[in-house]
């Protein structure tokens, strides 16, 4: 077949890229979004995936499913579709195939059903660092058992290192260590050579973002909850959701940071934070040692040295000047991965796929079996709840800018009706009693 689709899979979201023969690769956008949250809704024959299913989940609908990679650990969980009872693990397969059907209809302009495409459909999987080996095996088996034979798992980091080597960013003597922040956890992956020795994947909890990014996310969340007291949220999950948004906010140098932030339920809320408040809270960020300890351990495992190691900051949450400057105090070689680097890497992957005719080929570097994560540096949340540090008071609730989004619209009380006045009538007093005669 003259096309190929790559699915990037993380624990909370997936995204799709595709290429048709002779054309550049592109993002597959569904309803103007290329990232799809992992929520599912099944009732009768009605199946929904992504944001529509998320709405049902946050409305406590019993037919909606979230936390997929936690749910699959319970083998007793099932769902029913088309009259058939199926294990909850198959929700992921139904969700992805729903998107592949969209691709067939809207990109290939084919009217055939997905069933006729399965055996030869060129499907490639890219797993993010937060997906563990048993979960990778599960996802692969779901598609192979469904009849997807032209299936392969790719290694994004190895493709990235190849591209950086070709650009002259890396040399053969260097030990590249890739750092990536996902949902406020930091993942470290070291490669002794481009396609050779690979270190154990290491995870540092609660350190997956520049400290300023984490602080800003916490400040925004506290502002929102103070102004919307009816909200019931998971603080850690919501902060993780806000991190990419906050990383973009900090690229703009402004004394007042304001706008609308979208929480995990998909709803947006207005906020206003001052840069002075952010800098004051930054004084409490003191757990940088967890990151440097993990980096130094990875260098030692690779029998390398600090001078021969280059740190590659892959995700925007850590690819900031503040985070980089802190690392440069101890490690001489630190480089952020740019959008151009990402584009070149995806272009390289699709070029390799096209060279193979979009069929499974040994010419494409296969993802190695990465050892299970054995080293996890658990750091307690860097910041205690902000309320315990008595931050500057929030602006009064009645002092809201006009552009603020109000979740609930209270209808106006109707104006009282003007009842016409009744005509005045003369009041007839009763006669006075007669005076007594003396």
Helix count, DSSP H or I runs of 4 or more residues: 11
The CATH level-2 architecture of the largest domain is identified as: 2-Layer Sandwich
SS-based class: alpha/beta
Backbone shape: globular
Q: What name does the CATH topology of the largest domain carry?
A: Nucleotidyltransferase, domain 5
Output the CATH class name of the largest domain: Alpha Beta
**Domains counted in the coordinates: how many?**
3
Superfamily at the CATH H level of the largest domain? ATPase, nucleotide binding domain
Radius of gyration: 29 Å
Largest sheet: 6 strands, mixed
The averaged pLDDT comes out at: 83
Strand percentage: 15-25%
Could you give the distance between the termini? Answer: 131 Å
Helix content: 25-40%
Number of strands: 19
Low-confidence stretches: 362-374, 379-430
Order of SSEs, N→C? Answer: EEEEEEHEHEEHEHEHEEEHHEEHHEHEHE
Region (Disordered): 384-438
């Amino acid at each position: 077949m003259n096309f190929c689709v790559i699915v990037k899979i993380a624990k909370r979201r997936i995204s799709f890229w595709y290429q048709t023969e002779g054309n550049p690769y592109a993002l597959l956008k569904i309803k103007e979004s290329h990232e799809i949250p992992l929520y599912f809704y099944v009732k009768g024959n009605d199946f929904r995936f992504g944001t529509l299913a998320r709405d049902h989940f946050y409305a406590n609908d019993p037919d909606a499913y979230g936390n997929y990679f936690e749910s699959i650990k319970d083998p007793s969980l099932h769902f029913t579709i088309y009259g058939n009872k199926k294990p909850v693990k198959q929700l992921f397969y139904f969700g992805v195939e729903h998107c592949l059907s969209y691709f067939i209809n809207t990109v290939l302009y084919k009217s055939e059903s997905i069933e006729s495409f399965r055996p030869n459909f060129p499907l490639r999987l890219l797993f993010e660092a937060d997906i563990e080996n048993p979960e990778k095996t599960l996802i692969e088996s779901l598609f192979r058992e469904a009849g997807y034979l032209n299936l392969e798992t790719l290694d994004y980091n190895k493709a990235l290192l190849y591209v950086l080597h070709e650009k002259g960013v890396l040399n053969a003597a260097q030990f590249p260590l890739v750092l990536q922040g996902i949902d406020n956890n930091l993942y470290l992956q070291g490669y002794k050579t481009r396609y050779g020795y690979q270190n154990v994947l290491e995870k540092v909890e609660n350190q997956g973002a520049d400290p300023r990014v984490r602080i800003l996310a916490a400040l925004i969340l506290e502002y929102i909850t103070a102004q919307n007291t009816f909200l019931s949220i998971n603080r850690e999950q919501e902060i993780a959701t806000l991190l990419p948004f906050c990383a973009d906010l900090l690229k703009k140098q402004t004394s007042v940071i304001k706008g609308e932030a979208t929480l995990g339920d998909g709803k947006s809320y207005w906020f206003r934070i001052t840069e002075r408040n952010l800098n004051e809270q930054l004084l409490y960020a003191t757990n940088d040692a967890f990151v440097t300890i993990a980096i130094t351990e990875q260098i030692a495992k690779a029998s390398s040295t600090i001078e021969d190691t280059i740190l590659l900051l892959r995700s925007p949450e850590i690819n900031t000047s503040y985070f980089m400057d802190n690392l440069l105090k101890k490690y001489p070689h630190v480089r952020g991965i740019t959008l151009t680097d990402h584009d070149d890497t995806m272009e390289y992957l699709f070029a390799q796929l096209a060279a193979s005719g979009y069929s499974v080929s040994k010419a494409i570097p296969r993802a190695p079996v990465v050892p299970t994560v054995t080293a996890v540096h658990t750091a307690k949340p860097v910041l205690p709840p902000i309320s315990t540090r008595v931050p500057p008071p929030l602006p009064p609730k009645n002092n809201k800018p006009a552009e603020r989004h109000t979740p609930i619209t209270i209808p106006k009380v109707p104006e009282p009706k003007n009842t016409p006045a009744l005509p005045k009538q003369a009041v007839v007093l009763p006669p006075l009693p007669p005076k007594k005669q003396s």
